Amino acid sequence: MDKVNLTATSTFGLEAVVKRELKNLGFEKQTVTDGAIEFEAKISDIPKLNINLRAADRVLLVMGKFKAYSFEELFENTKKLPWGDILPIDAHFTVTGKSVRSTLYSVPDCQSIVEKAIVEKLKQKYKINWFEKSGAVYKIQVAILKDTVTLTIDTSGAALHKRGYRENQVAAPLKETMAAAMIDLSFWNPERLLLDPCCGSGTIPIEAAMAAKNIAPGLERKFVSEDWGLIEPIYWKNARKEAFSAIKTEVMPKITASDIDPRAIEIAKINAENAGVDDVIDFAVKPFDSIKINEHYGVCISNPPYAERMGVLEEVEQLYRDMGRLFRTDKTWSVYIITSHEGFERLYGKRADKKRKLFNGNVKIDYYQYFGERPPKKQ
Ligand SMILES: C[S@@+](CC[C@H](N)C(=O)[O-])C[C@H]1O[C@@H](n2cnc3c(N)ncnc32)[C@H](O)[C@@H]1O
């Protein structure tokens, strides 16, 4: 089993970002559905994907896809799949499930039928009747959408936003994958100043610095499929080696990050140090209304409070007004703000050039994008 189908999952609205990342990693042919991008790869590509994808949530190994309208069909079609090629005799496997607009709607029943079918298949292969499940972890998912069943095994383990650098966080931290996507969707590049004036635990500036220096997000963490016998350790070693040598140590982006809360800045500094990018981020304790911009063509990317989750509404609204007032003083600045406050544009005082609907956890948010003048082309 060398060629496999994989799915990179993403937050709703970020599919295009993950699609582009996959293309850059060499996976051109993709099928995109809501929150999932499926593509063909080799088993040995699993390390490279987990280590390098910045905006994806997980990488799943697709075991099979079929229609099922009855439990019998679910059982028989699951049993036909090559589980014995992936799961060793001691595999510690669990089955979770979800069902949307399908005849088979009872998720607990579907889970237990899939589990029974897998056990039957493994009994045939290993010629035993009892499985200890004492070995490596395999998280199997049965997902049924409009009667199409997709069976996958998670290769990532902890979700990919868990890079390992964020030991501490503030009250409403942004997912690292979302911060990475916000940067990818902006026109920021390391030659322009990046400002996050409400940086909290530092996720946006840290992700920006890592992207600029091409530090792979998964370089410092482990993935569940490393414990499977399926992927030779040499592939993990090589993928890490390759990622290390791709780091652009010479790139020194200019990043400024501030927050009104001294504790947030303390945390952000530690996180930046953990991520190895503290040398390119200037952190400061500063309320927004004392910020001055004295450089052209800067880019502000920020996740200010929404009031839904933190902050008092009047203060939050004043902050949005202050933002509009400051950035209107220099037409060369580009501003990218994520918030769930539907009155943001009115308070900021200008309609966004572009708006993108996203989700931060379960909160519906908009990514407001104001494009400043382009920097002059270098001679
Ligand atoms: C949603 S949190 C940012 C979370 C951050 N993106 C992270 O991942 O940790 C909003 C931050 O804005 C800060 N803040 C609120 N009002 C502010 C103001 N007037 N000036 C500067 N920072 C402010 C809060 O202290 C908080 O850390």
Strand and helix layout:
Layout: E1 3-9, H1 15-24, E2 30-33, E3 36-42, H2 46-52, E4 58-67, H3 71-79, H4 83-86, E5 92-100, H5 107-126, E6 137-145, E7 148-154, H6 176-184, E8 194-196, H7 203-212, H8 233-245, E9 255-259, H9 262-275, E10 281-285, E11 299-302, H10 313-327, E12 334-339, H11 344-348, E13 354-360, E14 363-370
Parallel strand pairs: 5-6, 8-9, 8-11, 9-10, 11-12
Antiparallel strand pairs: 1-3, 1-4, 2-3, 4-7, 6-7, 12-14, 13-14
S-adenosylmethionine (SAM) is lined by residues 169-170, 172-174, 197-198, 200-201, 203-204, 259-261, 264, 287-288, 303-305, 311, 319.
Number of strands: 14
What is the ordering of alpha helices and beta strands? Answer: EHEEHEHHEHEEHEHHEHEEHEHEE
Radius of gyration: 23 Å
Instruction: Summarize the biggest pleated sheet.
Output: 7 strands, mixed
Main sheet: strand order: 2-3-1-4-7-6-5
Helix content range: 25-40%
Q: Tell me, what's the shape?
A: elongated
Q: Give the DSSP E fraction (strand runs of 2 or more residues).
A: 15-25%
Query: Which molecules are bound besides the chains?
Result: S-adenosylmethionine
Going by CATH, the homologous superfamily of the largest domain would be: Vaccinia Virus protein VP39
Give the CATH class of the largest domain. Answer: Alpha Beta
Structural class: alpha/beta
Number of helices: 11
Distance between the termini: 52 Å
Q: Can you give the mean pLDDT? A: 95
In total, how many domains does the architecture comprise? Answer: 2
| CATH fold-level topology of the largest domain | Rossmann fold
